[in-house]
Specification:
The protein is built from nine helices and seven strands; from the N terminus they run E-H-E-H-E-H-E-H-E-H-H-E-H-H-H-E. By secondary structure, the chain is an alpha/beta fold. Strands 3-2-1-4-5-6-7 form a seven-stranded parallel β-sheet, sandwiched between helices. Helix 1 links the parallel strand 1 and strand 2. Helix 1 packs across helix 9, helix 3 runs parallel beside helix 4 and helix 4 runs parallel beside helix 6. It is globular, with a radius of gyration of 17 Å.
C-alpha cells in the first residue's frame, strides 16, 4: 500500500516504534528510523536488515527537542529522496510519580520529549509537505489522554496536548493536502509491560473486554492504514487502539 513512499518514524528502535518501521517496510515504504543515540539507531537497522537484507531502511539520531537539529536531518532526507510522505511521531517517555514527588524539571522533561519534539518534527516535515501538496503525519497518543491516570500527571497532560495538536494541525494542513491523525494505544505488550509482575499483568489482561493485551503490531497496523490511501478522507482523528479499554 505504500510503495514509493518515504516515511520517518521517531522512537523507531524498539517496541511500538520498531513494529511501525517493520509494518511500513512490509507495505513497500522506504523508512528512516530515528533513535535517541547513534548506537541504538544503527542496532535497530542492523536487526531489520538481518531479517530482510533488502529492507529500505536507514537510521538517524537528531536531538528531537532541538528544532534546528531535526530540520537539518529532515532536510537531508528530503534532498536524498525528493519527498517526505509519512511522519510517525512515536518517540516518548512515560511518568508515574505523584505530583508531590514531581519537580518542574521532571515535568518539563516529559513535555519536551512528548510535545516539543512532536512540534519540531511536525514543523520540519510540514515545510516539505507544503511544497509537495501532500503528506501524512501520525502521532502516538495514549488511552490516558482520554482517561487520565492516578499518578504521573505529566504523561496524560502531554498526550492531551498531542490530541489538540493533531486536530489543529489537521485543520491547518488540509489546504495543502496534508492529513494529520493520532493513534491512542491501550495496554500494549511492550518491554515495559513485560517487566511488570505476573499478577499485575493478569489483572490488566482481565480488565480488557477482548481478553488480551495489545501487541505492538496492532498499533502498527492502524498506523499503516492511516498512512495509506485507504484513509484518504480521514484527518484530525485520534483513533483508540486499546481493545475497548475502560478506566
Amino acid at each position: 500500500m505504500l510503495t514509493n513512499k518515504v516515511a520517518i518514524v521517531t522512537g523507531g528502535t524498539r517496541g511500538i516504534g520498531l513494529a511501525m518501521v517493520k509494518a511500513l517496510l512490509e507495505e513497500g515504504a522506504t523508512v528512516v528510523l530515528a533513535g535517541s543515540r547513534e548506537e541504538t539507531a544503527n542496532k535497530a537497522v542492523e536487526g531489520i536488515k538481518a531479517e530482510n537484507p533488502d529492507a529500505k531502511v536507514e537510521g538517524i539520531w537528531p536531538d528531537l527537542t532541538k528544532y534546528e537539529d531535526v530540520k537539518a536531518c529532515f532536510d537531508k532526507i528530503y534532498e536524498k529522496y525528493g519527498h517526505i510522505d509519512i511522519l510517525c511521531n512515536n518517540a516518548g517517555v512515560s511518568a508515574r510519580d505523584l505530583i508531590e514527588d514531581t519537580t518542574q524539571e521532571m515535568f518539563e522533561k516529559v513535555i519536551d520529549i512528548n510535545v516539543i519534539a512532536v512540534f519540531n518534527c511536525s514543523k520540519a516535515a510540514y515545510e516539505h509537505m507544503m511544497v509537495q501538496k501532500s503528506g501524512c503525519i501520525i502521532n502516538t497518543s495514549s488511552m490516558v489522554s482520554q482517561y487520565g491516570q492516578p499518578s504521573g500527571l505529566a504523561y496524560p497532560t502531554s498526550k492531551f496536548a498531542i490530541n489538540g495538536l493533531t486536530l489543529s494541525l489537521a485543520r491547518e494542513g488540509a489546504k495543502y493536502g496534508i492529513r494529520v491523525n493520532a493513534v491512542a494505544p491501550g495496554v500494549t505488550n511492550t518491554d515495559m509491560v513485560k517487566a511488570l509482575p505476573e499478577d499485575m499483568r493478569e489483572k490488566l489482561k482481565a480488565s480488557l473486554p477482548l481478553g488480551r493485551m495489545g501487541e505492538p503490531e496492532d498499533i502498527a497496523n492502524a498506523v499503516v492504514f492511516l498512512a495509506s490511501d485507504h484513509a484518504s478522507y480521514i484527518s484530525g482523528q485520534t483513533i483508540r487502539v486499546d481493545g475497548l479499554a475502560t478506566v
